[in-house]
Structure formats: structure tokens, C-alpha cells
Amino acid sequence: MPNQELIVYLNGEYLPLRLAKISVLDRGFLFGDGVYEMIPVYGGKPLRLAEHLERLENSLSGIRMASPLDEGQWVDIFNRLICGSQDQSIYLQITRGVGTKRDHAFPAGVAPTVFVMCAPIAPIPASGAKAITLPDIRWQWCHIKAITLLANVLQRQQALDEGCAEAILIRDGDVMEGAASNVFAVVDGVLLTPPKGNYILPGITRDLVVELAQANAIPLEQRSISLEELRVAEEVWLTSSMREVLPVVELDGRTVGNGEIGPVWARMNALYQAFKEQLRTGLL
Ligand SMILES: Cc1ncc(COP(=O)(O)O)c(C=O)c1O
């Protein structure tokens, strides 16, 4: 629960969270008409900032919006909100703004609503997670980081209700991604992850894991993973900015591999933690 005295950015102003208010006619509230980003910050430095801002640009252009701020302006806001060197996250959201009535059509000449908040990151549990698979009921533009997340919310909640950390979404027999994460599997010693496309979010953590695998001679293929392959994989992982690289030890009530966290995960996690440490200590 964010501290109510947290200072946040809303439409050009810095103010306490409890005073940050938007109109009920905001299109984010009425239609989920907006996009967002979540950027982890280590040692006061955002991880893969350029990549996050590039994905934001792509999400905005995907919903026919221009970026309201340039890179320098974003960085200025982030620097004012980042507090100390503790691990934290930047959440930023842009909506199409406030119309004069509830109407699906884009309102003419309105300024977007821009909100940014920085909050401490919760520590990541050291244990393996449980996951379930569910049919992917989302729309076809999952590459846009849209705030319209009802399907993801319902599917994550179903996982939680079943004592699991995540729902892995299956479309036409293939693994897409988690409700709020990307998916990796180790099959016959090869690290697999689904290729990018309009059915998955191009995760920044995913890309970093791919890069770390390639740079460290971990065999990797970006190709479709069938549900059958996932069920017999030696290892399954979920990746996201907030959960980093999370090993899945139980899938749909059955153990993954031998039920222990796997050796490829241990290697990748060490590489990922080392990357974070380099960022913290200014080596990146
Ligand atoms: C649907 C979905 N896929 C993947 C991810 C992982 O993206 P990232 O690694 O950029 O956090 C997220 C993160 O929230 C997500 O919501």
C-alpha cells in the first residue's frame, strides 16, 4: 500500500498522493483508454530506461496518441520522484484525457492525463512459484501496454484463488505469456521463449534474459512453445520487472521437472542479479 504522503506527478504538478485526483470523465476511468509503463529502479537508476521509453512510444502510437513529454522531461520527472537508493519502481500512466461527455469517439483538442508515481519494490520471495494454465481470453493487441487489463486481472485472480502466483495463457494450443509476465521454458536443455508478436507484451525483462542467455552461451530459441512441451519442460520461469526471473515448480498441480528450482534458472538468476548490481554500483 503506497504511503499516502508519497509525492506523485500529475499533469505538471508534484503533490501528495492523497491530493492527486482526476475527473470522472477521464477516458482512463471511463474506457480504460490509456497506456502505462512500470520501470524498476536500482541504486537510484532506472533499469533499461531507453527500452521502457521506446515501448511507451510504441504503445502510444498503437492507440493513436503522441507522447506528451520528451525523454528529457520524463527523466526530469523520474529524478524528482526517485527517493534514495532503495529498490523502487516507477509507474507511469497516460490516458487520452478528459472529454466533455461519455463518448467513444476521441475528444478533440484535449490534453492527455499524465500520472507518475514511484514506490518501494516488495522483496521477491526466494521460493519457487505455482502456476496454472488458462485459455487466453484477451484481445489481439497484447503488444500494447494498455491499462485495459480486465482479462489479465480476472485470470491473475483465478490463479490466486487456486493458490498460484500466475496464470499462463494458452492460445490455439501454444503458450503466450503470463497474465502479467513473460514465459520461458527449458526443454531438452534449450531455453525457449515465445517469439514477439501482437499476442504478447514485449517484456523488458524478457529481452534482458534473452540477451544474458546469448551473451553467456546458454542455448536459446525464440519459438512457439506448445502446452504439451510446457507440461514436460525441465524448467519453467516467469519474467517481469517486479518478479524478475521467477521459477515455477508446480504447473496445474503437477511438479515441473523434479519439483526443485532448476540449474539453468540458478545460472540466469545469478546473471540477472549481477546485472542489477552493476546498475546499482554505476558500472552500466
Ligand atoms: C501481460 C504482461 N506480459 C509481460 C510482462 C513483463 O513485462 P516487463 O518485463 O517489461 O515487466 C508484463 C508486465 O507487467 C505484463 O503485464
Automatic annotation (TrEMBL):
Function according to Swiss-Prot or TrEMBL: Involved in the biosynthesis of p-aminobenzoate (PABA), a precursor of tetrahydrofolate. Converts 4-amino-4-deoxychorismate into 4-aminobenzoate (PABA) and pyruvate.
Record field: catalytic activity: 4-amino-4-deoxychorismate = 4-aminobenzoate + pyruvate + H(+)
Entry-linked InterPro entries: Aminotrans_IV, Aminotrans_IV_CS, Aminotransferase-like, BCAT-like_C, BCAT-like_N, Class-IV_PLP-Dep_Aminotrnsfr
Signal peptide residue numbers: none
PROSITE patterns linked: AA_TRANSFER_CLASS_4
Alphabetical UniProt keywords: Aminotransferase, Folate biosynthesis, Pyridoxal phosphate, Transferase
Pfam families assigned to the protein according to its UniProt record, in alphabetical order: Aminotran_4 (PF01063)
Cofactors (names): pyridoxal 5'-phosphate
A single MF term (Gene Ontology): 4-amino-4-deoxychorismate lyase activity
Name of the protein in question: Aminodeoxychorismate lyase
Pathway annotation: Cofactor biosynthesis; tetrahydrofolate biosynthesis; 4-aminobenzoate from chorismate: step 2/2
Keyword Transferase (UniProt): yes
GO cellular component: cytosol
Similarity comment: family membership: Belongs to the class-IV pyridoxal-phosphate-dependent aminotransferase family.
Class in the EC hierarchy, top level: lyase
Residues forming coiled coils: none
A GO biological process held by the record: folic acid biosynthetic process
EC number, as in UniProt: 4.1.3.38
